[in-house]
Amino acid sequence: MELKNAGFTPLVDEPLSKYTFTKTGGRADWLVFPHSHEETIRLVAIAEEENIPLTVLGNASNLIVRDGGIRGLVLILTKMNQIKVVGTDIVAEAGARIIDVAETAWQAGLTGLEFAAGIPGSIGGAVFMNAGAYGGQVADVASAFTYLDRSGAQHQAVGRGMHFAYRHSLIQENDGIVLTATFHLAKGNKTQIRAKMDDVNGQRAAKQPLEYPSCGSVFKRPTGHYTGPLIIKAGLQGKQIGGAQVSMKHAGFIVNIDHATASDYLELIHLIQHTVWGKFGVRLETEVRIIGEEPVGELV
């Protein structure tokens, strides 16, 4: 591989469980943390030129990596994390945490990102899935984003061209790689902004099992229903497979309470889907992104 010749020193056979919020997942063949757009563009080009499978991750929060790991080259963009205030806009690189962007907005007296005060994901991940919580979503405030296609060519999406929908964006359609996002905000009262952010974080701490590793909200909200109550009515709250458990605090979360594997998570997800469908005729679609290879010797 041309990575070393190009000045990169990848981590080899690196456990991704060190980086995922679930603390599960197999190994990456090669792992690199690019620091700039230029490095990312070069790495994407190398993967394309050498026909190497390429996977790009952000903060690995709403993610499950299967126990067989990921073949080829993995990029984690968390070192690419600059945040800049330009008037009432904030421009953030893909690896910046959306929590930090929300804090920057408060410091600048800008309102619109309070809903993101406790979301643990990166800007790239937030754009990818149109992240949202507590009455707000990325689509409400994102005015543009720049991204790469898989050949390394750079593009910009604006307005309706961002294709935002519930937990959806253009990036999911074209397998793009977010570089930056621009958020158009409004001048606000810093005291009121802080109070709303603190309220959001208070609700999150009261309702969500933040004391355990998890992948966040596992399922999308099905039309006409709420996921947590469905799981409770199905008798699955507290259900445990291996070290993975349906949270006793919020049934929409699966937590790692005892050295869980990704396979534990996936088996529990499938059990929930099967049971809820059988009892209520409601299909639960995963919100969490599931990637990687099945462990050798296990059936898919």
Which tags fit this structure?
300 residues; alpha+beta; 4-stranded mixed sheet; 19 strands
Give a short synopsis of this structure.
With 300 residues, this protein is α+β, with helices and mostly antiparallel strands. The protein has helices spanning 37-49, 98-107, 123-129, 138-141, 170-174, 190-207, 227-233, 262-280, and strands at residues 11-15, 27-32, 54-57, 63-65, 70-76, 83-86, 89-93, 110-111, 132-133, 136-137, 142-148, 154-158, 177-184, 186-187, 214-217, 240-241, 244-246, 253-256, 289-291.
Write the layout of secondary structure elements.
Layout: E1 11-15, E2 27-32, H1 37-49, E3 54-57, E4 63-65, E5 70-76, E6 83-86, E7 89-93, H2 98-107, E8 110-111, H3 123-129, E9 132-133, E10 136-137, H4 138-141, E11 142-148, E12 154-158, H5 170-174, E13 177-184, E14 186-187, H6 190-207, E15 214-217, H7 227-233, E16 240-241, E17 244-246, E18 253-256, H8 262-280, E19 289-291
Parallel strand pairs: 2-5, 3-5, 4-19
Antiparallel strand pairs: 1-2, 6-7, 7-13, 8-14, 9-10, 11-12, 11-13, 15-18, 16-17, 17-18
Walkthrough of the structure:
There is one protein chain. The protein has 300 residues and is of the alpha+beta class. The protein is built from eight helices and 19 strands. The protein has helices spanning 37-49, 98-107, 123-129, 138-141, 170-174, 190-207, 227-233, 262-280; strands spanning 11-15, 27-32, 54-57, 63-65, 70-76, 83-86, 89-93, 110-111, 132-133, 136-137, 142-148, 154-158, 177-184, 186-187, 214-217, 240-241, 244-246, 253-256, 289-291. The strands form six sheets. The chain has a five-stranded antiparallel β-sheet with strand order 6-7-13-11-12. β11 and β12 form a beta hairpin. It starts with 10 loop residues before the first strand and ends in a 9-residue tail after the last strand. The relative contact order is 0.14. The model has no long low-confidence stretch (mean pLDDT 95).
